[in-house]
What we know:
The structure holds two protein chains of two kinds.
Chain A: H1 2-5, E1 12-16, H2 19-27, E2 32-35, H3 44-52, H4 54-69, E3 72-79, H5 80-83, E4 91-94, H6 106-118, H7 125-133, E5 138-141, E6 147-148, E7 160-166, E8 172-176, H8 192-216, E9 219-220, H9 221-229, H10 240-257, H11 261-272, H12 279-292, E10 302-308, E11 311-316, E12 324-327, E13 332-335, E14 348-349, H13 353-357, H14 378-388, E15 392-401, E16 407-413, H15 415-420, E17 427-432, E18 440-446, H16 450-461
Parallel strand pairs in A: 1-2, 4-5, 6-8
Antiparallel strand pairs in A: 3-7, 3-9, 7-8, 10-11, 10-14, 11-12, 13-18, 15-16, 17-18
Chain B: E1 2-8, H1 15-26, E2 31-38, H2 41-49, E3 64-70, H3 73-88, H4 109-115, E4 119-124, H5 128-140, E5 144-147, H6 154-166, E6 171-172, E7 178-181, E8 184-187, E9 194-201, H7 204-216, E10 221-226, H8 239-250, E11 256-261, H9 266-278, E12 283-287, H10 292-299, E13 304-305, H11 309-319, H12 327-339, E14 350-355, H13 358-372, E15 375-377, E16 397-401, H14 405-408, H15 419-429, E17 434-442, H16 451-468, E18 474-480, H17 489-498, E19 502-504, H18 507-518
Parallel strand pairs in B: 4-5, 5-6, 9-10, 9-11, 11-12, 12-13, 14-16, 14-17, 15-16, 17-18, 18-19
Antiparallel strand pairs in B: 1-3, 2-3, 7-8
Amino acid sequence: MNTISNTSAALSVVNIGADLFADAIEAQGFAVTHVAWRPPAGDQHALMTLLADPRVNEANKIAVERMLSAHPVIVDVRPAHEVISALQKHKLLHAGPPIEWERMCGPMRGAVVGACIYEEWAKDEPEAVALADSGTLDFEPCHHYNAVGPMAGITSPSMPVFVVEDKTQGNQTFSTLNEGLGKVLRYGAFAPEVLERLSWMQEVLGPALGRAIRRLGGVDVRAIMSQALQMGDECHNRNKAATSLFVRQVGADLVETGRSSEETAAVLRFIAGNDHFHLNPSMAAAKAITLAGANVPHSSVVVTMARNGVDFGIRVSGLGDRWFVGPAQYIQGLYFAGFGQEDANPDIGDSAIAETSGVGAFAMAGAPAIVQFIGGSPADALRYTREMYDITVSSNPLFGLPSLDFQGVPTGIDIRQVCRLNMLPVINTGIAHRLPGVGQVGAGIVYPPMECFEKALSALAM
Amino acid sequence: MVIKARVKRNTYFDSITLMKIARTLTAINGVEDAAAIMATAANLELLKEAGLTPFDENAGMEDVLLVVRASDEDSAEAALQSAEEQLAQRPGFTSIDGDMGGQKQPRSLEQALQLLSDARLAVISVPGPYAALETDRALRAGLHVFLFSDNVPLADEIALKQLAQERGLLLMGPDCGTAMLNGVGLGFVNVVPSGPIGIVGASGTGIQQVMSLIARLGGGVSQVIGSGGRDLSEEVGAITTLQGLRLLQEDEETEVIVLVSKPPAPAVAERVLEVAVKGKKPVIVIFVGADHAALENRYGNRIVVTRTLAEAAQKAVSVCGGSDITTGTWHIREMKAVRAVKTARAGNQFLSALFSGGTLCDEAMHLWAEPLGAIYSNIPIRSEWRLVEAGQRVEGHCAIDFGVDEYTRGRPHPMIDPSLRLKRLQEEASNPRVGVILLDIVLGYCSHPDPASVYGPAILAARKQAKHEGRSLTFIISLCGTEGDPQRLSVQATKLREAGAEIFTSNADAALRCIEILR
């Protein structure tokens, strides 16, 4: 038979579906590979069209090449209103996709109250709530201004922010400074000590870091992350190595530009006392990486994943600024002593930008220590990373993982493959208490709702 | 001696990868030394020490710099080219890669092709709503497709078959049960010797009947191309059947072509038969249940039109000159075997035929309609004989196809899972008005591994019960299979015969035997 027998005498077969058919072919002595198939998600015709469309592959290549070329460097620390001009009185940025005050979860409401008192728009909680109830406050996602904030992500005009610049594309991205663990604004706390700390960060920490970084001529976040990934961090739930590397880089300049040794010591002590200090610059860097891949027509690469504690939202390169949302999920993980599932808030924060850029849970193979959070073993860490290659366009050679033979982290989530394989991106994350101000109660892994990807898939196919 | 360099701007590779690449370059003829570095100040200094300067390129610490010192321009160029190619190789890494405990079972067709790069065919049996996507992927990857799935939207079938046709590929299905390409049996298929008879058909069990009987008659089969139940409809226009016909016409190993189908849409039949008659090879056509006289009138002088599947098999074998068996003698031989079984006449009693193969059911009903009258069925040959639901009981002859949707939704086909048909067999057997029960049993790959062990005891018990009640009850088995099948025809036949059933390897003969008993 010309189209068949000319190429090979015996046909090798791929079997998709019932293994009965594969067994029968094997019994006849022929080679057959059985696919571990599961039903794809989303509209099948949309998926079929997009998988067959060469423009999508081409666009994804461009988007991911841009992501891989991004070179984020911390260039400054400035008050948010100076670098985000829209962020003025009565405007607050929050984590995740857009949400109204009425629908906000406990920790985010607490953070809004705290920010209002901190900005002196209200003197206490009742006044702050009244202000929010009156509709005076203007809420918008951090992502709309290329900013990112962990947990509630509330960013107010006076807060100092890291200014990260992508030296390749020239974009600037921003993130607040990490307050540490325990009672902190990002978990919705607004007790006096929380507000005192915020004031100190505004008056002392931010300016000190800004002076040191400007003098240093910038801190190469990409290089820090690259090294941290080989030192046991995944740059989302574990930031010990990156924080240490950061201190090593800025230490001398902090001293030389410091206003007093007491003040500099306090700054260094604060950073050293918070293993997650570098989470925020890593997030801004991740934002810079994903932003580089945004707005490529036809591209099916995810450039934003973010949660506000109620909704999970994604944005896709070829679909501009549109959010595709579904309900935020509960996190599977370990709880700190005295807390349990009933205390947990659904998934919250902009920190999933880490996974969107290829680190975080996607780099779990480089951070075996943290798999204990999900009761896993180092082998599970390898598996989490390896699986993500199936839903990503490429790998990032800048972020090589020793445990995977220096293969780069999986980068550029393709909504087509997420739906095709019915396999969601995995996210490492902290668990926030559902009530304002209690703080972190555990950590673990979480997945986005498939709905986000299904909606985006249909939109891209239109 | 020349020194040439090339810069990849704003690209990062780790030093180990770069060193590995550099090492491969030094193996190239004419290359004396080579370096691949991130162009940091320290690395540029090393180049100088290695005698890999000067060159006409400027590179900074964000860039990859490739430098080659070679005996001549061409060697240097070849080395740089090779380095660039190696850098460009950032292959799609997936979970199935690597020796580090990655899963070995692919999650998608594309991953499967990484493991089996010479694959030429995909067998797809996922649920209908998902089948189009997998088929589209397989065709675009250059694979022929055997698509077992049913409930695939008609529009998808048409679009996919057009895609296959454009790419010179075969899409067998949807709802294709049987095929055999280059000796690989696909789906529900019997083990037959290779030989000069090519089969193209839209009916799975119809094809199985023809290929099994060809083997029984000493003939052999070259290729079997299934087209799927709707291929010969007006809408699909026989895309696969026509492709298959042409392939068989060109295939060197095929001397005779058998075309098996239920009656096609008239315009489609016309188109298909026009192609059939234009070829140089003899074509035997069995359109089960079609107006034989009309076809015979129109095409009889150019192609062989047969009434039954058995006849088609027989004609194919005799056209090849492989056998001197003619219709008459063969039938007589089969009937002689039957005569050994002592049976009672079942006048005034009803026939209950329980089929797993739709085409076999259809063929039998057409043979029965004239001598027996009304045959009630869930796939009736006349609309007034339709059973509103298959479970409905009527006072009369009935023939049920257990392969239709209502019996297969959420459970395996009756050729694999006999439970529903077995239950019905017991009900029919206890009905005093039923005198003859016919079952088809289809052997081959994918079918039940030992159907006689299931039906044998049931038949034995039913006959015992009937005897106890002083009734006559005859079991007729239409046994489709070959000696080469995993279940072995002779083993199955012996077991069923021991249970007291009459065995026929031709479905038509089994049907005719029922008439003989009932009249």
